[in-house]
């Protein structure tokens, strides 16, 4: 019965949050009933993402990330020459024989 109360509480809080979000979105709606409208617009657009150097830097960072992910973890198991050391463990089991 207590789990039903927590589900109802979660449902009510989710409904409240979604209603609040809907009210905030509708409050930002551009249609208004006001009759006096003053508009003075000066449009200046500066886009820095169109610049070629931004694309070059972004591509370089992406390539570095891809190379780092492909190479994997080169932790302490690698030697200075770049080759990895392998460890082979061999177990020998001897059972007692009846005499």
Summarize the structure.
This protein has helices spanning 2-27, 52-71.
Write up this protein.
This protein has 99 residues and is mainly alpha-helical. It contains two helices and no strands. Residues 30-47, 73-84 have a biased composition (Low complexity). Keywords: Membrane, Signal, Transmembrane, Transmembrane helix. Residues 28-47, 73-99 are annotated as: Disordered.
Q: Which features does this protein show?
A:
single chain; 99 residues; mainly alpha; flat; transmembrane helix; signal; membrane; transmembrane
Query: Which percent range fits the helix content?
Result: 40-55%
Alpha-carbon distance between the termini?
A: 68 Å
Specify the oligomeric state. Answer: single chain
Number of strands: 0
- Largest sheet entry: none
Query: Helix segment count?
Result: 2
Structural category is mainly alpha
Q: Segments where pLDDT lies below 50 for 5+ residues?
A: none
Note the overall shape: flat
Query: Which series of helices and strands comes N to C?
Result: HH
**How much is the radius of gyration in Å?**
33 Å
**Averaged pLDDT, please?**
75
Beta percentage is: under 5%
């Amino acid at each position: 019965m207590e789990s039903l109360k927590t589900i109802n509480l979660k449902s009510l809080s989710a409904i409240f949050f979604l209603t609040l979000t809907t009210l905030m979105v509708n409050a930002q709606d551009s249609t208004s009933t006001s009759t006096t409208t003053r508009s003075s617009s000066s449009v200046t657009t500066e886009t820095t993402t169109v610049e070629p150097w931004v694309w070059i830097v972004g591509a370089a960072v992406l390539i570095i990330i891809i190379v780092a992910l492909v190479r994997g973890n080169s932790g302490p198991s690698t030697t200075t020459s770049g080759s990895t050391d392998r460890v082979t463990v061999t177990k020998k089991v001897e059972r007692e024989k009846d005499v």
